[in-house]
Amino acid sequence: MTFRKRLSVLVVTMVAALSLTAVGANPAQAAPPTSTAAPTSTAPITGTFTDAAGKTGTFAGSFTPTKFAAQDGNLVATGTLTGTLTDSAGNAVGTVDQSVTAPAAIAQATCRILDLTLGPLHLDLLGLVVDLNQVHLVITAVSAPGNLLGNLLCAIVGLLDGTPTAGQLAAILNFLLALLSGL
Q1: Which of 24, 121, 137, 158 is deepest in the core (most CB within 10 A)?
Q2: What is the per-residue burial (b if ≥16 Cβ within 10 Å, else e) of 173-183?
Q3: Where are the domains of the chain?
């Protein structure tokens, strides 16, 4: 798996992990609006919560990352979460505009094990003729919890990749945020 693919998976996972922070959000605990630097990139965030009537309310908003860091060897994202909490009757019951720090991790990755292309093949075995057109064989391993063989094969394939540590990845992502803010 290329670094670009890993980075894409990381960003998607970060957005998914941050969307879970809206579950159970209480507008009474929302911090007052804080000012941040100009938005660099935003991701839509949706979630649900239990409203005062005991029914399901919704949260709709966005997350703007401002910084990535390594905490205890794990990658975390810090940014501003803004949005509106709407109860089950459709009434806005509060707004959120606060700084949030959440773990960012690669959820599921795939790695290419084999990509084999055979051209057309003609065999004549003592009068038995076998003609085979082009064959394209792709074997991909999926790395995720419970996928023992996929995890093993992806680990073997990635032995020489030089996977970055959480700190190195945080530095790269902070550099990308700085580039985006300059656009």
Answers
A1: 158
A2: beebbeeeeee
A3: 3-103, 108-157
Across the range 111-123, mean pLDDT stands at 85
**Is residue 158 predicted with pLDDT exceeding 80?**
no
Task: Give the per-residue pLDDT at 159.
Answer: 67
What pTM, to 2 d.p., does this model score?
Answer: 0.46
93 dihedral zone (left: phi>0; alpha: psi -120 to 50; beta): alpha
pLDDT tens, position by position, 72-86: 888 888 999 999 999
- How many CB atoms are closer than 10 A to CB 69? 17
